[in-house]
Protein backbone atom coordinates (compact mmCIF):
# COMPACT_ATOMS: atom_id res chain seq x y z
CA UNK A 1 0.00 0.00 0.00
CA UNK A 2 1.22 3.49 -0.86
CA UNK A 3 1.42 5.78 2.20
CA UNK A 4 -0.67 8.94 1.95
CA UNK A 5 1.32 12.08 1.22
CA UNK A 6 -0.66 15.31 0.99
CA UNK A 7 0.86 17.93 -1.30
CA UNK A 8 1.32 21.55 -0.16
CA UNK A 9 -1.74 23.64 -1.02
CA UNK A 10 -1.91 25.44 -4.35
CA UNK A 11 -3.25 29.00 -4.29
CA UNK A 12 -5.00 30.12 -7.47
CA UNK A 13 -3.03 32.84 -9.24
CA UNK A 14 0.25 32.15 -7.39
CA UNK A 15 3.39 30.52 -8.77
CA UNK A 16 3.65 27.02 -7.30
CA UNK A 17 6.96 25.22 -6.79
CA UNK A 18 7.10 21.61 -5.62
CA UNK A 19 10.59 20.11 -5.21
CA UNK A 20 10.62 16.31 -4.96
CA UNK A 21 13.49 14.04 -3.89
CA UNK A 22 13.43 10.25 -4.08
CA UNK A 23 15.45 8.01 -1.75
CA UNK A 24 16.19 4.29 -1.41
CA UNK A 25 16.40 4.52 2.38
CA UNK A 26 14.60 6.30 5.22
CA UNK A 27 17.82 8.09 6.26
CA UNK A 28 17.91 9.75 2.81
CA UNK A 29 21.51 8.78 2.10
CA UNK A 30 21.02 6.79 -1.13
CA UNK A 31 19.10 8.57 -3.89
CA UNK A 32 17.02 6.81 -6.53
CA UNK A 33 18.16 7.77 -10.04
CA UNK A 34 14.99 9.17 -11.64
CA UNK A 35 16.73 11.14 -14.40
CA UNK A 36 15.35 8.91 -17.18
CA UNK A 37 12.01 7.95 -15.60
CA UNK A 38 8.67 9.31 -16.84
CA UNK A 39 6.37 11.07 -14.36
CA UNK A 40 2.63 11.76 -14.48
CA UNK A 41 0.39 13.20 -11.77
CA UNK A 42 -3.38 13.40 -12.03
CA UNK A 43 -5.82 15.02 -9.58
CA UNK A 44 -9.53 14.22 -9.51
CA UNK A 45 -12.53 15.47 -7.55
CA UNK A 46 -14.74 13.19 -5.44
CA UNK A 47 -16.89 12.40 -8.51
CA UNK A 48 -13.80 11.13 -10.36
CA UNK A 49 -13.57 14.08 -12.76
CA UNK A 50 -10.01 15.05 -13.65
CA UNK A 51 -9.15 18.54 -12.36
CA UNK A 52 -5.58 18.78 -13.63
CA UNK A 53 -2.74 16.65 -14.94
CA UNK A 54 0.99 17.21 -14.71
CA UNK A 55 2.92 15.44 -17.46
CA UNK A 56 6.58 14.47 -17.54
CA UNK A 57 7.47 17.88 -19.03
CA UNK A 58 6.23 19.51 -15.79
CA UNK A 59 8.72 17.48 -13.70
CA UNK A 60 12.07 19.16 -14.40
CA UNK A 61 15.16 17.05 -13.66
CA UNK A 62 17.60 18.43 -11.09
CA UNK A 63 20.07 16.10 -9.40
CA UNK A 64 19.68 12.45 -10.43
CA UNK A 65 17.22 11.83 -7.57
CA UNK A 66 15.27 15.09 -7.90
CA UNK A 67 12.42 16.55 -9.93
CA UNK A 68 10.80 19.96 -9.48
CA UNK A 69 7.36 21.05 -10.62
CA UNK A 70 6.96 24.79 -11.21
CA UNK A 71 3.54 26.08 -12.23
CA UNK A 72 3.01 29.64 -13.43
CA UNK A 73 0.47 31.97 -11.86
CA UNK A 74 -1.53 31.77 -15.12
CA UNK A 75 -1.71 27.98 -14.81
CA UNK A 76 -2.82 27.95 -11.16
CA UNK A 77 -5.38 30.72 -11.81
CA UNK A 78 -7.19 28.28 -14.11
CA UNK A 79 -7.45 25.56 -11.44
CA UNK A 80 -10.78 24.98 -9.70
CA UNK A 81 -10.76 25.55 -5.93
CA UNK A 82 -11.35 22.46 -3.79
CA UNK A 83 -9.75 19.37 -2.32
CA UNK A 84 -8.75 16.66 -4.77
CA UNK A 85 -7.29 13.16 -4.67
CA UNK A 86 -4.12 12.65 -6.66
CA UNK A 87 -1.60 10.00 -7.49
CA UNK A 88 1.84 10.14 -9.03
CA UNK A 89 2.78 7.35 -11.42
CA UNK A 90 6.37 6.82 -12.47
CA UNK A 91 7.42 4.69 -15.41
CA UNK A 92 10.87 3.16 -14.90
CA UNK A 93 12.83 0.63 -16.91
CA UNK A 94 11.02 -2.16 -15.04
CA UNK A 95 7.40 -0.93 -15.22
CA UNK A 96 4.88 1.71 -14.13
CA UNK A 97 4.36 2.25 -10.41
CA UNK A 98 2.34 4.57 -8.16
CA UNK A 99 4.93 6.23 -5.92
CA UNK A 100 2.76 8.83 -4.17
CA UNK A 101 -0.93 9.37 -3.48
CA UNK A 102 -3.02 11.60 -1.25
CA UNK A 103 -4.81 14.92 -1.40
CA UNK A 104 -4.04 18.36 -2.75
CA UNK A 105 -5.98 21.50 -1.82
CA UNK A 106 -6.49 24.33 -4.31
CA UNK A 107 -7.32 27.54 -2.44
CA UNK A 108 -9.31 30.41 -3.95
CA UNK A 109 -7.48 33.52 -5.01
CA UNK A 110 -8.41 36.53 -2.89
CA UNK A 111 -6.19 39.25 -4.36
CA UNK A 112 -6.26 39.62 -8.12
Strand content: over 45%
Given as residue ranges, the uncertain stretches (5+ residues, pLDDT < 50) are: none
The average pLDDT value, as a whole number, equals 95
Alpha carbon gyration radius: 15 Å
Structural class: mainly beta
- What is the approximate shape? globular
Fraction of helical residues: under 10%
Q: What strand line-up does the widest sheet have?
A: 1-8-7-3-4
Cα(first) to Cα(last) distance is: 41 Å
Considering the chains and any ligands shown, give keywords for the structure:
112 residues, mainly beta, three-stranded antiparallel sheet, 1 helix, globular, five-stranded mixed sheet, single chain, 47% strand, 8 strands
What does this molecule look like?
With 112 residues, the chain is mainly beta. A five-stranded mixed sheet has the order 1-8-7-3-4, with no helix packed on it. Strands 2-6-5 form a three-stranded antiparallel sheet. It contains one helix and eight strands; from the N terminus they run E-E-E-E-E-E-H-E-E. The chain has one helix spanning 73-77; strands spanning 10-11, 16-21, 38-44, 50-54, 59-61, 66-71, 82-92, 95-107.
Task: Outline the fold blueprint.
Layout: E1 10-11, E2 16-21, E3 38-44, E4 50-54, E5 59-61, E6 66-71, H1 73-77, E7 82-92, E8 95-107
Parallel strand pairs: 1-8
Antiparallel strand pairs: 2-6, 3-4, 3-7, 5-6, 7-8
Summarize the structure.
This protein is mainly beta. Helices cover 4% and strands 47% of the residues. A 5-stranded mixed β-sheet has the order 1-8-7-3-4, with no helix packed on it.
Amino acid sequence: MIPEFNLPAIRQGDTYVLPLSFWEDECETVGINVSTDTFKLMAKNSAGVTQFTWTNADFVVGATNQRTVTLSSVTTAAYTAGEFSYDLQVTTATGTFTWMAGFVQVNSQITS
